[in-house]
Specification:
The chain has about 130 residues and is mostly helical. The chain has a single domain, classed as Four Helix Bundle (Hemerythrin (Met), subunit A) (Up-down Bundle), CATH 1.20.120. The protein is built from 6 helices and 2 strands, in the order ααααββαα. Strands 1-2 form a two-stranded antiparallel ribbon.
Length: about 130
């Protein structure tokens, strides 16, 4: 295990989760809150995977890899939910002939749901990392 990589991912994930919460509470830029929620979950999972000897994972979808190591289905489902927003929260997309930009695609409700799921993933994985170190 490369402790330096694990710590760097943990620190970054914690910062992203705090920023997601601040953006949510500010009542503006809900799409950005979703982005940071997703990133927090992804980074804490990459920290855990680094504990398992896996480094340099260059993809955003880590739920499939993580499922090899943990059996908690609700955590995997929460992570999959967040992964579905990797591009939707960042780039314009078409919906029934209408181009939607990320700022108009997300409400407080959706951002709160993303944050809650990211926080659940984060808390669970932090506990798993603590068992490994």
């Amino acid at each position: 295990m490369d402790r330096e990589i694990v710590e760097a991912f943990c620190k970054s994930a914690e910062s992203d989760l705090k920023l997601a919460e601040e953006l949510l509470e500010a009542g503006e830029y809900y799409y950005a809150s979703v982005i940071f929620s997703q990133q927090a979950a992804e980074k804490i999972c990459k920290a855990y995977l680094a504990c398992k000897g896996m480094k340099n994972i260059r993809k955003h979808d880590v739920s499939g890899i993580l499922a090899r190591f943990i059996d908690e289905k609700e955590i995997i489902k929460a992570l999959q939910f967040l992964e579905a927003h990797v591009t939707k929260a960042r780039y314009p997309f078409r919906l029934e002939h209408r181009l939607i930009s990320p700022p108009e695609a997300y409400s407080r409700k959706e951002a709160k749901l993303a944050f809650e799921r990211a926080k659940a993933v984060y808390n669970y994985i932090v506990e798993e990392i603590e068992k490994e170190t």
